[in-house]
Structures are given as C-alpha cells and as structure tokens.
Design goal:
two-stranded antiparallel ribbon; 21 helices; about 55% helix
C-alpha cells in the first residue's frame, strides 16, 4: 500500500520585515463603528466650541451664570428661582474654573446681577461665558452617546450611527447645546431616563429603574417644563416590568414607585447641594398667588418650597400676554400651531422626512412596535404641553424632538427594502450639508424651502433668529466697514454695546427727522417694531446684515 504524504504546514515568516496579517473583516467592522462615533461627535464638538467662542451672551445666559456664581459663593437659592438649580450647577462647574470676581454686596434684579457680573465687576465676559458654556457642550456630547446607545439597542449599530449623525448635525441641538442654558440638558436627561427604562425590559430592572428615576429627577431639577413627563415615565417603568411578568401588577406598581420616588429624591438632593439648610426667601422676586387647580397642584408637589414658588412664578409668566411673530404677522398671546410651524421652518428637510418615516416605522412594524411608547409617546406629550404654553418664543421649547426622533429615524433602516439604505443615506447627507452651510450661525437656521438662515427673520423671531448673540460680530463689522459713521442702535439682548466698542444712540429717543446715518436694528426688534421705530424702518434702506440676526439700514 502506498504511503500517504505528510501534510506540509506553512512556516510563518518571523523576519523583522514581515508584514502583519490584516485583522479579520468582522474585527475591522467592530473598530469602524467607534471610529465613526468619534468622528461625528468630534465634528459636533468643534461646531459647538467654535460657535460658543464667537457669540456674545444671549438673553437668558447672564442670569444663569449669575445664579451659578451665587450658588458657589452664597450657597443658597436666590436668583432665578423659576428654574431649579441643576442646570445652573452644571454651568457652575465652568464658572468655578473661570474664577470670576463676584460682588457679594450686589442686590439688584437677576438681569442686573448678570450684567453686573459680566461687565461691571472686572471680569472678561468672553472668557467667563466660554467657561460657562463648556460643561453644557460636554453634556450635549454625552447625550449623543445616549442617542447612539438607545438606537443600537433597538435596531443595531448602523441605524445607531444614522441617529447619531442626525443628532450631531441638528442645527437646534448645536445652537442651544453651545449655550449656557437649560433646554438641552433637560431634554437630554429625559431621553436618558427613557433609554434606561427600555433597558429595564431585559431583566436588568433592579439596576436600570433607579438610574432611570435619577435621570428623570435630573430633568425635573433642571426645568419644570419636564413635569408632564413624570406620569408617562412612571407608566413606562410599569410597562417594562410587565414585559417580563405580564400579570404581576404589584411589581409594575413598585417599578413606577421606584422611578417616581428616586426622581423626587434627586430634586431634593439638588437643592441640598446648593444650600444644606434649604434657606429660601423670595427677596426682590415677586411670587404671585396661584389659585384654583394650578394652586392645588403646586401645594401637592413633594418638592422644596423654593421649587413650588418657582412654579408659581412660572404660572405668573404664563398668565402674561407675550408678543408673538409668525410669517410676518405680529400678535399678542400664543397660537397652538406655532411650534409645529416653527419646527417645519427650522428643521432640515431631510430630517423632517426621516422623522416622519421613523415614526411610521415604529408604529407600523411589529419588530419596532414595542419601542413606540418609549420613543414617541414622551415626545408627543411634551410637545402637546409645550404647544399649550403662552410663550411663542422659539423651537428651543421643543428641543427634545431632535433627540427622540433621531432614535426613531435611525430605525428606518430596519425596513427590509433595497431602497431604504440608499434613501436614508442620501437624506442624512442632505441634513449634514444643510447644517454645515449655516456654520457658525446656527441660531437663525431655517431650511432651504424657506430661504435659509438669511430669511428666517421674515417668518420667526426671538431665539429662533436673534437672541442677542451677535453683538461682537456687529462691533467687528462697524469697525471694519463703517468706521467713523454715526450709528443708531436698537439692540435686543443682554450684552452691553459700549463694552465691545460700539458708540451708538437710541433712535427711539429723538424725533425721526434727526436720525441720519447708519441705523442698526436687531431682527427681533424689527419683528416687534411699532410707532417710531416702524416709521424709521419704512423710510430706511437695508444695506448689510450681521450673523443673519442684525440688519443695518442706511438713512
């Protein structure tokens, strides 16, 4: 019988110049996902930081920064009680690192306190505002990871990357995530809570439910407008337990209780961090008397007295008549359809399409339907609540939508159609291009169907367009193009024009016939123009614009 030859095994090349073998393809794919996540978050970080560096204080920011400085130096809640402390404690991290000089003897209003801290206490407002904004920027980036993780749990890594891309290129998220304000932190904490409630379905309820309650408490301790989400998230906690034990009502109620009690504890802990003695005196802040059902609800809230008084102040603000502006029409009060219309104007067209497709996919696909109550219901309840508000001042009141609906939009890739990846990819690229074209002026963004950022002021006002952010850019423009000219200025914002070298007079204090030269008007002031200013604008010729938020006229 013939003998079989022995098998020959290749000898590995051990010479120093040997080329290492390529990693297996699945390993390369696993590496690709974190690399793409890092790329998306890095571009978002660059966009937010470079935007923050160049923007002067918006209307709300000085108040929050002054309140944060007060927490650090006085250890008590005094300024801005209408908003709970947690978001301002986040800002306080940056304020502490900036180490500003704080005048503890100042006793003016919260708006005056913000102006005094930034411009009258020997501090550099550029440096202080950048430090105050950086913690919010960091938090916004972390919420991007939540968007990615939530979508990956629902649909896998590729849909998760799509959701993260939509989040990272959202003009509203970039605009408000780069400011020392409260809207993005509150929305991000809510999204985090909902994601943890979803994860509690897989048997990790003992770990995830308390964390979800803590995230919900963080949202409540940042903005009171998140209160309508409490019963929704409590119900979702019960639903998560019922997913494994459908008939265990006792465990379901216990899950809802754990989330609710933990959230309440976090609110109390936030106030205790600011002031362990829980001192509270309204001082110069007027706390209105709230009667009826609202008054009873406020008294029933299991929160510190400062929180309940803050709610009373909020109800007082809701009872005021605010100026609205929509598609060239100025009005008093609020319109229920304002937010949906404003969102259509200020959301990239590709994003609107993907949001719609994602909502339909979640409601219609058997695989995704269990997640629909977690993604769609909280967003719908919060939007309905925001639509009933009295202040038509911006899409920032619905900044939770780009977060929740990014998750839904990413899940469109689970649709088993050949065209789905191509269409989703093309729309995502369209979103990215539209967002990048508005850099670095994200606040006045509007999509291509409405003429882009240069025409947003014709349809919307306030934080949709002009929130006082371009005073520094205006100073540069006047210095380079209009040096030596007589300037008349109507500025709506919290900045101090003289600090930036702007020497100007108020045209509303003299007869229109005396106003000659360069008339500079914030676009929000243009939208609200009446009487003398309206006469001046009708007889002036626009010649320039700054940041798509300030218009220069020639007289």
């Amino acid at each position: 019988m013939a003998t079989q030859p022995h098998p020959v095994h290749p000898v590995p090349d051990t010479t120093p110049d040997a080329v290492p073998a390529r990693p297996p393809r699945p390993a390369r794919r696993r590496l690709l996902v974190p690399v793409l996540v890092a790329v998306l978050l890095t571009q978002m970080a660059v966009a937010m930081v470079t935007t923050a560096v160049r923007q002067t204080p918006t209307i709300d920011e000085p108040v929050y920064v002054a309140a944060a400085a007060g927490y650090l130096h006085e250890h008590r809640v005094r300024l801005n009680p209408e908003h709970p402390p947690l978001g301002k404690l986040v800002v306080a991290v940056g304020v502490a690192l900036a180490r500003p000089h704080v005048d503890a003897s100042f006793t003016g209003t919260q708006e005056a306190a913000g102006r005094h801290l930034l411009y009258e206490s020997g501090n550099d407002p550029w440096r202080l505002m950048l430090w105050a904004r950086l913690p919010v920027i960091a938090l916004t980036l972390l919420f991007g990871l939540v968007v990615f993780a939530f979508t990956r749990d629902l649909a896998g890594p590729v849909p998760a990357l799509t959701a993260l891309a939509l989040y990272a290129f959202s003009p509203d998220v970039v605009a408000h995530g780069s400011l020392a304000t409260l809207d993005v932190p509150a929305a991000g904490f809510l999204l985090t809570s909902v994601w943890l409630l979803w994860r509690a379905r897989d048997g990790s309820a003992r770990r995830c439910l308390p964390l979800a309650g803590a995230a919900l408490g963080a949202a409540l301790a940042t903005k009171m407008s998140t209160l309508p989400a409490v019963p929704v998230l409590a119900a979702l906690a019960a639903l998560s337990v019922c997913a494994r034990r459908p008939r265990d009502a006792r465990r379901a109620l216990a899950a809802a209780g754990v989330v609710t009690v933990t959230a309440v504890a976090v609110v109390w802990a936030t106030y205790l961090v600011v002031d362990p003695r829980l001192r509270w005196e309204p001082g110069t802040t007027h706390v209105p008397v709230v009667r009826g059902l609202h008054g009873q609800l406020v008294r029933m809230l299991p929160f510190p007295e400062a929180y309940r008084d803050g709610m009373r102040i909020q109800f007082g603000l809701e009872n005021r008549s605010w100026e609205g502006f929509l598609f060239g029409h100025r009005y008093s009060g609020a319109r229920w359809y304002y937010l949906p219309v404003a969102l259509v104007v200020k959301t990239p067209l590709g994003m609107l399409a993907l949001w719609t497709a994602g909502a339909v996919a979640m409601a219609g696909m058997r695989r995704l339907r269990p997640a629909a109550p977690y993604v769609l219901v909280p967003a719908a309840v919060l939007l309905a609540s925001a639509m009933t508000g009295a202040r038509d001042l911006g899409t920032r009141y619905a900044v939770f939508l780009p977060m929740f609906l990014a998750v839904a939009a990413g899940c469109v890739l689970t649709v088993r159609r050949r065209w789905a990846p191509v269409v989703v990819g093309a729309l995502t690229v369209f979103v990215a291009v539209s967002s990048l074209r508005t850099y670095p002026c994200y606040l006045p963004y509007s999509n291509e169907a409405f003429g882009g950022p240069a025409r947003t002021h014709l349809r919307l006002h306030d934080s949709n367009v002009d929130w006082g952010q371009d005073l520094g850019r205006l100073a540069d423009r006047l210095h380079t193009r209009y040096r030596g000219e007589r300037v008349w200025l109507v500025y709506k914002g919290s900045g101090v024009p003289a600090y930036y070298g702007i020497e100007a007079s108020d045209p509303r204090r003299v007869p229109p016939g005396q106003v000659h030269g360069l008339l500079v008007v914030s676009d929000s002031a243009v939208a609200e123009a009446r009487d003398g200013l309206a006469v001046l604008l009708r007889s002036s010729r626009p010649v320039d614009e700054v940041g798509d938020s300030i218009t220069l006229y020639r007289r």
